[in-house]
Each structure stands twice: as structure tokens, then as C-alpha cells.
Model the fold of this input.
Amino acid sequence: MSTSLIILAAGQGTRMNSDLPKVLHPVAAAPLLIHAMKSGAALAPERTVIVAGVGAREVAAAAQAFDDTAQVVIQPEQLGTGHAVLCAREALRGATGDVIVLYGDTPFIRPETLQRMTEARARHDVVVLGFEPADPGRYGRLVMQGEMLERIVEFKDASDEERTITLCNSGVIAASAQTLFDLLDAVTNENASREYYLTDIVAIARDRGLSASAVTCDEAETMGVNARDQLAAAETAFQARARAEALENGVTLTAPETVFFAHDTVIGRDTVIEPNVIFGPDVTVESGARIRAFSHLEGCHVSCGAVVGPYARLRPGAELSENVHVGNFVEIKNATLATGAKANHLTYIGDASIGADTNIGAGTITCNYDGVMKHHTEIGARAFIGSNTMFVAPVRVGDDAMTGTGTVVTRDVPDAALAIGRSEQINKPGLARKLFEMLKSRKAKRDEEAE
Ligand code: UD1
Ligand code: CA
Done:
């Protein structure tokens, strides 16, 4: 059966103390909302509807950047989770299958957990995701009778006895679209918060002779973000998991706790990652590569056997083929380095293609930007680029070519040619000694006057 998602994201997020909508705060370089969408994406949802409030335009832009079919509806006033879900009704009109409600500020629900909920849906009309937290605090409580879920009681409305229940509501709930909206029509706001509670649909379902049950998951999955300390805790939790997964997948991390992954980082087997490496979004490192200490990578692809860093920066569009070496204080942006190419020291390569086995000398810079537009530098295979070469792009250097140290390349260099462009050196015999003497006597005079 098909499933659609409703992701609640209209809450004020007051405790974040931020101009940014809460669900757009990032964990592992992706907005919280995208984590929730990724969990749900595993169910191949027929439709995805995000219920937004403040900052709806930014929320929509982020959601649609991840999934351009996602719909964003607005809940003008936050009247409760039940009201929020009702705001998605129009967007789901005609949707035949199930609906799963997720929270945009709860990033770690595992796809397998949602899968278990859809399986439980075959046996029950309403399925709620419960968990047993170390501290049940103010969570809503699941009132069970054997296998059956009788109702959910909000902490504020719960009796002392109900408050002793340890099985709590995560907020994730599944039902058919038809059932969900039918039940919500009967929800009122007669409760301690004067809110329309989504959770009330359980008792209404039971009254109508429908069945409800709970699936449980680990507390780690239901971790929500309401304030900056929880955002930091979510980051910590994500990183701990990502490091453990990397180790398990055969990646060596010399100092795991100093390596930071993004939500979508892919690292191959037998790659070694030295301390203090940071991965931004969209990085793939193939197997057997080495990412040396203090390197920063984003939007790039590193092939087998490549060595990056220490202190390298790979920016979006950096494409390193097999056995490429990129050394210290080298920045690569929107550039391809073919097999065996090397840029080992103090270099900027932007908007360029570098041929196989070409060696880029220290201090080389592709001058790709003229203040208005970006231009391309093309360097062929097996070229030898002398230290401190400046390529004033657009410019092309052929295969097997050389540039002399300090050359400013403004015109194309043919295959196998040597380009030298620098002013000639003159030696003045004895002039250095004379200069030293003159300067020393000047300094002595000044020191005397100062006394
Ligand atoms: C809710 C549940 C509670 C559960 C807890 C888990 C209800 C009535 N209560 O409580 O049983 O234990 O989550 O964290 O559902 N939202 C909207 N519009 C609204 C209200 C909320 O979009 O009008 C969104 C929020 O942005 C948030 C989510 O819904 O992502 C949950 O809202 P929140 O106020 O945090 O729910 P709780 O009162 O904590
Ligand atoms: Ca709340």
C-alpha cells in the first residue's frame, strides 16, 4: 500500500531564540527537516506534505531542494498537532493509502522503524510509535491494555496514576488517510492546553470500534530539538553514530571523536581518515584513500588511492581521480585532477582541469576570476608546472608542457612547449655588502639620537 507523509513543522521554536525557523537548523550539515524527510523517503512516499508556520517560504525552499514534489501548506495559527495535521487535508485529497505523521524537529527516526509501523498497520487501524525514555518527563503517555492502545493522555491532562506510565508518545502516528481525517474531525480542544491534540484520535478510534496499537523504538530515535543545547546534543548523537558506522564499514579513523561527517558522507573501505577532518555535504571518498589531518571537504569526490592534506580544502566540484595527491594548504574548487596528478603545496586550483600525471608546483594559482566572471584553465597530461605559476584564465596548457617558475601564463601553451614569462635577473657585484653597511650605519645613528 502507498504511504504519504505529513511532517509537522509549524511550531514557533521559541526556545531556539533564532530568526531561522527551527526545522532549518542543521545537524550534520542538513536541516532537521531534511533528516525527517530522509527517514520518510525510505517508504517511497506517494506525497509529502510539510505543515509550516513562520518562515514557510524558507521551509518550502529547503524542502523542495531535497524533494521537488514536496508540498508545503501553512498552519496560520498553532492550535495544536491535530489542527496542524488537518491543514494537510487538501494537499492529500485523493491520496488513497496510508499517512504517517512525523515531526520536522525530530531527525533520527530510523526508516526500519517506519517500516515496522506500516507492517503493524496491516493489523491495526491506528499505529503509534512509542518509546520508554530514561526520564518520561512531560511526554504524552500511552495507555495500553495488553496489545491494544486505549488512548494517549497528555502529561498536563494526566492523573497521578497515568503519569507513572513509562511508555511515551513519540508523536509519530500512522493511519489510512481516510481514517486519520475522519477521526480528526471529531477532535476538540477541551483540554488543559486548549489545543487540538492529534493524540486524541486514538480514544476516538477505540470508541468507534477501530483498533489501535503501538510500535516501540529506542529513545535515541525520538530525540527532538527544541533549544540549542538539544541541537548540539543531536549533532553529538549523529556524529557518534556516523563514526561507529564508518569504523564498522572498514574505515580507519585515527581519532574518531575529532572527525565530523555530514548526513550524506560516503567513505569507502580501507580509507584512512586522520584527526580533525571535517566533511561538509555531498562528499564521496572511494576506498583506500587517505584524508590527512585538518582537511576540510565538501561537494567533492575523491577516488581510490588519493591522498588529501594535511590542511587541504576541497570545495564543491573538486573531482580527484585515482592516486591524485593534494597536499598542505591546497584549495581545489570546481576542478578535475586526472589520475596521478599532484598539487602538493600552497596552491589554488579553481575552475580547471588538470591532466594525468601532471605536477603542479608550489604556490601555483589559477586566476579564475576577473572580478565579474569565472574562467577556465585547462592543463594537459604529464605537464610540469613550475612553482608560483599564475594562470590568467581562460588559458590552455598542452600535454607534456612546462612552465618556468614564476611565470604568468596569459597565452595558451602548446603541447611540449616551455613557457617562461618573468623579468630577467641582473647581478650587481658587491652591491649587497655596500647596502648592508649603509643600512647598519643609518641604524646606529638613529639609536644614538634616541639615547
Ligand atoms: C507532542 C505530543 C505528545 C508527545 C510529544 C513528543 C500532542 C498533543 N502531544 O507534544 O504526546 O509525547 O509531542 O515530542 O500531539 N506543531 C505544529 N503545529 C501546532 C503544534 C505543533 O506544527 O499547532 C508541531 C511542532 O512544530 C512540533 C510537533 O508538532 O514539531 C510537536 O509539537 P510540540 O508542541 O512539540 O508537541 P508536544 O506538546 O511536546
Ligand atoms: Ca510543546
User: Anything to note?
Assistant: The chain has a mean pLDDT of 97. The first strand starts at residue 3 and ends at 9.
